């Protein structure tokens, strides 16, 4: 993705988020220079990979296959392993109309996916085989706002604003905006996007950025290169 495209997506996301009365934390608005000046006090933001995240999954077609995310808070994997402390995370996402977040599952993370406003949120579901691999013949059980729901293989559940679905490790899922753009909340166990996303098809988690203009704000995938 070109940096100019990333910057445009950021600006559009800022506008949509504001329309729903949601406010991002202060570090969301730092310029590159402000971020550098805030180090090392901001080391926790960097190590937890909190912040802006825009991906086309390395496929070069964001409008068809992509997702906007902002990680608001993220816990420690060490706390998760020991069963105490900050073992949770929270994100804000935007799925555009018919923009697919591709079929995947998690190894560790359980998550509540919440329609915070806008159009419907379509979630397609499959179960896993005993090894955890994708199984096109497997269904399962999820919880929608605490109520169990049995799903058939490939079933699509459309969540209107205010409703949510709980996905556990091994629940294969893809999602998109149904009939329009949708603002999504995610509340989960500690988030590890570097190793805890297993995609059905061989794609990448992060976009490759072509630098054609200065960043509006840094992406989490920029931190290593831009902040050292």
From TrEMBL:
EC number: 5.3.1.15
Cofactor: Mn(2+)
InterPro entries associated with the record: D-lyxose_isomer, EcSI_cupin, RmlC-like_jellyroll
Alphabetical UniProt keywords: Carbohydrate metabolism, Isomerase, Manganese, Metal-binding
GO terms for MF: isomerase activity
Uppermost EC category: isomerase
Cell inner membrane keyword on record: no
Catalytic activity annotation: D-lyxose = D-xylulose
Pfam family, one: Lyx_isomer
Family: Belongs to the D-lyxose ketol-isomerase family.
Protein name: D-lyxose ketol-isomerase
Organism: Sedimentimonas flavescens
């Amino acid at each position: 993705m070109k940096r100019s495209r990333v910057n445009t997506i950021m600006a559009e996301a800022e506008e949509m988020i504001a329309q729903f009365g949601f406010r991002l934390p202060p570090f969301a608005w730092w310029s590159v220079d402000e971020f550098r000046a805030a180090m090392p006090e901001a080391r926790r933001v960097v190590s937890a990979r909190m912040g802006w995240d825009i991906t086309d999954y390395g496929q070069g077609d964001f409008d068809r296959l992509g997702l906007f995310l902002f990680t608001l808070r993220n816990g420690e994997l060490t706390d998760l392993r020991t069963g105490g402390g900050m073992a949770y995370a929270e994100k804000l996402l935007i799925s555009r109309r018919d923009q697919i977040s591709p079929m995947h599952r998690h190894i560790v993370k359980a998550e509540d996916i919440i329609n915070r406003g806008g159009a419907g949120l379509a979630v397609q579901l499959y179960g896993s085989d005993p090894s955890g691999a994708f199984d096109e013949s497997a269904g399962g059980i999820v919880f929608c706002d605490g109520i169990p729901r049995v799903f058939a293989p490939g079933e699509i559940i459309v969540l209107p604003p205010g409703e949510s679905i709980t996905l556990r490790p091994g629940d294969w899922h893809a999602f998109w905006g149904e009939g329009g753009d949708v603002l999504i909340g995610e509340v989960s166990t500690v988030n590890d996007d570097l190793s805890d996303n297993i995609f059905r098809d061989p794609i990448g988690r992060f976009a490759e950025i072509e630098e054609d203009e200065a960043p509006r704000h840094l992406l989490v995938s920029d931190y290593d290169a831009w902040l050292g």
